Amino acid sequence: MLAQQRQQVILDLVQQHGGVRVADLVREFGVSDMTIRRDLEVLADRGLVSKVHGGATTVGAGSTEEPGFAAKSVRQREEKEAIARRAARLVRPGTAVAVSAGTTTWTLAHHLTDVPELTVVTNSIQIADVFYRASRADQTIVLTGGIRTPSDALVGPVAVNAVRALNVDLLLLGVHGMSTRAGFTTPNLMEAETDRAMVGAARRLAVLADHTKWGTVGLSTIARLSDADVLVTDSGVGDEARKQLADEVGELITVDPGEADA
């Protein structure tokens, strides 16, 4: 396959899935890591994709744009890992927690499979699958059901009604954006409604959001910054943003991505 043909296929994959990983493309095309990275550089130079750590995603981000799970999973992976490790320490054995859909919370789920006697309520097929694969007899997993979004969240009346009938000790919430004006937001109206139901069902709210979420505003607000008992983010958050967040949330926890390997 010629380079131009391969680049066109890569572009089609990005547009179809919202993002691609270098490792996946290496296996797909049977070429070297360097070859794929050069292809992505060519596409990025033409303004057709945005290069991110470990892959590429679609270009642009409006308030109603909702990246797919694959697109988000290649972004800020080190930050998400560090955030997930720290957030897992908020979860106690024998409690009931809700975990919203998202790639940061999906990363978190891998660290919660070791927590004994945990009940997990989630509206994410991806997150439920993490626990099902772990196959712990002492853990109970509740999948809400509902309509599937591009980011693999289950939303709508079925999901909302399921959540409203429950009471959990802690909600671990992933978000699309956060700002002082709009609070914690998402580009999907139905997902916002489902997430708000989760907030209402939880005794405490912990938000997981890397530094790139600061200043990003989705179409619909899930909760105010002051509604968060805890916000776990990474050290990439600027000093001014950190001050504003500390003034609003109950507890601000910042982690260094280097902690992911600790």
From TrEMBL:
Top-level taxon in the UniProt lineage: Bacteria
SMART domains in alphabetical order: DeoRC, HTH_DEOR
Name of protein: DeoR/GlpR family DNA-binding transcription regulator
Transcription regulation found in the keyword field: yes
Organism for this UniProt entry: Actinoallomurus oryzae
Record has Transcription regulation as a keyword: yes
Residue ranges annotated for the HTH deoR-type domain, each copy included: 3-58
InterPro entries per UniProt: Carb_Metab_HTH_regulators (IPR050313), DeoR-like_C (IPR014036), DeoR_HTH (IPR001034), NagB/RpiA_transferase-like (IPR037171), Tscrpt_reg_HTH_DeoR_CS (IPR018356), WH-like_DNA-bd_sf (IPR036388), WH_DNA-bd_sf (IPR036390)
MF-aspect GO terms: DNA binding
Keyword annotations from UniProtKB, A to Z: DNA-binding, Transcription, Transcription regulation
